Amino acid sequence: MHKRRIRRSPGEMAFDGFNVLFMILLCVIMIYPFWYVMILAFNTGADAQYGGIYVWPRVFTLENFVYVFKYQTLRSAAVVTVARCLVSSVFGVSICMMTAFSLSKTRLPGRRAIIIFFMIPMFIGGTVVSNYIVMAKLKLINNFLVFVLPGAFSYFTAVVMRSFIDNQPIELQESALMDGANNYQIFFRIIVPLAKATIAAFLFFAVVGNWLDVTTNVLYITKKQLYTLQYVMMNVIKSTEARSIIDTSSTQMAKQIQTIQDMAYQPPTPQVIKMAIMAVVTFPLLFIYPFFQKYFVKGMLTGAVKA
Q1: Is residue 237 part of a domain?
Q2: Which residues are bridge partners to 43 per DSSP?
Q3: Is there a domain that residue 54 lies in?
Q4: CA–CA gap between residue 213 and residue 147 (Å, rounded)
Q5: How many domains does the chain have?
Q6: Hey, how many other C-beta atoms are within 10 angstroms of the C-beta on 280?
Q7: What is d(CA 294, CA 292) in angstroms, rounded to the nearest whole number?
Q8: Does residue 4 lie within any of the structural domains?
Q9: Closest Cα to residue 106, out of 170, 180, 161?
Q10: Rounded to 5 degrees, what angle do the CA atoms 258, 54, 245 make?
Q11: pLDDT computed for residue 301 by the predictor
Q12: 292 vs 94, higher pLDDT
């Protein structure tokens, strides 16, 4: 049997059509910058100098990425960045989760004073000079722990996690206590398994924050062995921009390069090098996101602060 369709007015159909077109346009506006970076990263530098590349690489090549991965600094920076994301994210979320569990205990001595103490840094922060002095006193300058310790605790994250714990039936913990479980067993065997969605959501937020952070490297790191991908990309972009000004000012050189590019090897231009590095540094997050997407809504709603 045919299903009866609900009749819709012309105004409703026009409104839905406008919404579809608007969302398509919005997606194109948001996605195209990433696509433009990719097509230039896979195009030869000599050909990219002529412009006019908007939809697809005109002269496809993988040489740009081969050239980029030859940078010894970039390879070491990738190791440092991945290690930082793993260690800092896991350590920070673990600290916040344990803090939330402790603050959920209404009988905790000095609970209100502890909460106020944690809230103060949210409204009063130190200056660049004072923070640098603190890091120097703690001997964290040019130390890998500067990526881990200063940003390990977030009161906002702890508040959301505490709200999630408060929303769980207190009978779960009481029955575990009656069975002889201590607070450590309750935390690891009851609270953590129930909070998987919330933990996964904040883990992804922490990974993104650590991956994109460049300020820490600028202020506290001078050793090349501790450079991160974002800092290396920033340095490469600055150096390539200066070279691009020289290259674009000589239009005759571009014609000569096009003439002899089949006769001799031409290294990638600063423009395509910059795009290749941006792709290498930025796009891994886009591949990680789908694995954590299902946890976002569930994790943030179950840990939402009650009104």
Answers
A1: yes
A2: 60
A3: no
A4: 10
A5: 1
A6: 19
A7: 6
A8: no
A9: 170
A10: 55
A11: 59
A12: 94
Short-list 32, 74, 85, CA closest to 207? 85
pLDDT tens for each residue of 5-37:
677 788 888 888 899 999 999 988 988 888 888
> Which two structure tokens, joined as six digits, stand for 148?
């881990």
- Amino acid identity, residue 188? F
**Residue from 164, 161, 198, 193 nearest 297 by CA:** 198
Q: Tell whether 117 is covered by a domain.
A: yes
Q: How far apart are CA 147 and CA 217, in angstroms?
A: 9
What does the alpha-carbon distance between residue 106 and residue 33 come to, in Å, rounded to a whole number? Answer: 50
| Per-residue burial over 118-146, b = 16 or more CB atoms within 10 Å of its CB, e = otherwise | beeeeeeeeeeeeeeeebeeeebeebbeb
**Could you list the residue range(s) of the whole structural domain that residue 115 is in?**
62-306
**DSSP symbols for 98-135:** HHHHHHT-TT-TTHHHHHHHHHHHHH----HHHHHHHH
Q: Give the CATH number for residue 214.
A: 1.10.3720.10
Q: Whole-prediction pTM value?
A: 0.75
Both tokens assigned to 16: 């839905």
Distance CA 234, CA 271 (A): 14
- CA proximity to 65, closest of 84, 37, 102, 104: 37
Torsion of CA 258, 263, 268, 271, to 10 degrees: 0
Q: Is the Cβ–Cβ distance between 49 and 247 less than 8 Å?
A: yes
Digit-coded pLDDT (tens) for 210-256: 988 889 999 999 888 899 988 887 887 777 665 555 555 444 455 54
